[in-house]
């Protein structure tokens, strides 16, 4: 538990103090956000706001994780390092995307093929490594199986598992990217999911099958360290949100959104709660579905379901204030996370 508190505190302090430094540095160098011309008119006033703030989140998270282990004199674990590798790798892909946008002064960065390739390469390395590196009890960070509250069903094989992991990683990194359309929206939405994973990791530690074998115990390799990872990123995200809340003084950019989507997918895979993430991160899933519905409807019927997708922009065009949308979507994110946690703990409730 000490590791969790220290990781969260270090992440918060580093991000809180580091973000204004990044704002000044990026502003001085002209690393400002480009705005799509077809977007809501109210966004044009945000042109030039510093972006790539996700670099602060990633760096603060890594330092917080390392600092917590140094403070408690405990070694990092394979599970924790793999999830952080996934976060950092996807953050690097996002950084390239953001840098190209800034360098070429346009709202589009990497070509979609190049961006997807970067996500797939990082994800494939993670997918292969996560099924190896067993501990002394023979438990690997993940098994080639599907999971909800724990693994279920037969093995789907390393190839099938790799494909499934890539779908999760690409899906959730892009889902957070689509959610990142209003000031503070993605930060708050992913923050509540990370908070849920702090609780999930801690609960899995207290009910692991090594210490107490039982019908509801968890075969998770490093549950405490996964909670430490979640706490480190959560602390960094809260510190960043202080400056990213409406009106934002800095944007996380693709650097942050891809990294956050990656860490959510990585935590779900390593804690054996893959399908539960769909509920925990329900807001991101809903926003992604709005884009799929919009595109599908237009291609099939020539008509649009929403005034604009992703969903948050639909409500902007209906006249909702940006802060109203952000706060209400945060509430939806909290409800989704609470529902996911409720399902997670349901089997432990007395009957």
Class from helix and strand fractions: mainly alpha
Question: What's the average pLDDT?
Answer: 91
| Structure annotation, total helices | 12
- How many domains in all? 1
Q: Which spans have pLDDT < 50 for at least 5 consecutive residues?
A: none
Largest sheet: 2 strands, antiparallel
Major sheet: arrangement of strands: 1-2
The secondary-structure element order is HHHHEEHHHHHHHH
In total, the number of strands is 2
How far is the N terminus from the C terminus? Answer: 29 Å
Radius of gyration (CA) equals 20 Å
Please state the overall shape, judged from the principal axes of the Cα atoms.
Answer: globular
Strand content: under 5%
User: Residue share in helices?
Assistant: 55-70%
Pathway: Cell wall biogenesis; peptidoglycan biosynthesis
Main location: membrane
Family: Belongs to the glycosyltransferase 4 family. MraY subfamily.
Membrane topology: Multi-pass membrane protein
Could you walk me through the main structural features you see in this protein, from its secondary elements to its overall organization?
By secondary structure, this protein is mainly alpha-helical. It has one domain (2-143, 162-345). 67% of the residues lie in helices and 1% in strands. Strands 1-2 form a two-stranded antiparallel sheet. The longest helix is centred in the N-terminal third of the chain and has 28 residues, at 2-29. It is globular and about 55 Å long. The two termini are 29 Å apart. Pathway: Cell wall biogenesis; peptidoglycan biosynthesis. Its cofactor is Mg(2+). Its EC number is 2.7.8.13. Belongs to the glycosyltransferase 4 family. MraY subfamily.
């Amino acid at each position: 538990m000490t590791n969790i508190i220290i990781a969260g505190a270090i992440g918060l302090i580093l991000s809180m103090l580091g973000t204004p430094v990044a704002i000044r540095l990026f502003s001085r160098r002209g690393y400002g956000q480009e705005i799509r011309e077809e977007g809501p008119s109210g966004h044009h006033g945000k042109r030039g706001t510093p972006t790539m703030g996700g670099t602060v989140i990633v760096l603060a998270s890594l330092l917080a994780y390392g600092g917590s282990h140094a403070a408690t004199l405990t070694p990092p674990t394979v599970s924790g390092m793999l999830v952080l590798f996934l976060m950092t790798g996807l953050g690097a892909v996002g950084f390239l995307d953001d840098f190209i946008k800034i360098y070429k002064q346009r709202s589009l960065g990497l070509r979609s093929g190049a961006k997807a390739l970067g996500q797939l390469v990082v994800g494939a390395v993670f997918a292969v490594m996560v099924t190896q590196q067993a501990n002394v009890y023979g438990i690997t960070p993940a098994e080639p199986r599907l999971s909800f509250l724990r693994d279920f069903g037969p093995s789907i094989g390393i190839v099938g598992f790799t494909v499934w992991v890539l779908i999760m990683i690409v899906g959730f990194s892009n889902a957070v990217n689509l959610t990142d359309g209003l000031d503070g929206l993605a930060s708050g939405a992913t923050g509540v999911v990370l908070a849920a994973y702090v609780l999930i990791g801690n609960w899995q530690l207290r009910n692991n099958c090594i210490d107490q074998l039982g019908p509801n115990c968890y075969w998770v390799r490093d549950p405490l360290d996964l909670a430490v990872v979640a706490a480190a990123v959560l602390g960094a995200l809260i510190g960043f949100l202080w400056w990213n809340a409406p009106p934002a003084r800095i944007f996380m950019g693709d650097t942050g959104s891809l990294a956050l989507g990656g860490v959510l997918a990585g935590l779900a895979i390593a804690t054996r709660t893959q399908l539960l993430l769909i509920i925990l991160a329900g807001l991101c899933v809903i926003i992604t579905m709005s884009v799929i519905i919009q595109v599908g409807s237009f291609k099939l019927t020539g008509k649009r379901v929403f005034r604009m997708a992703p969903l948050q922009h639909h409500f902007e065009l209906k006249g909702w204030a940006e802060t109203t949308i952000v706060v209400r979507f945060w509430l939806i994110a909290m409800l989704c996370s609470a529902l996911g946690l409720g399902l997670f703990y349901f089997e432990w409730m007395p009957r």
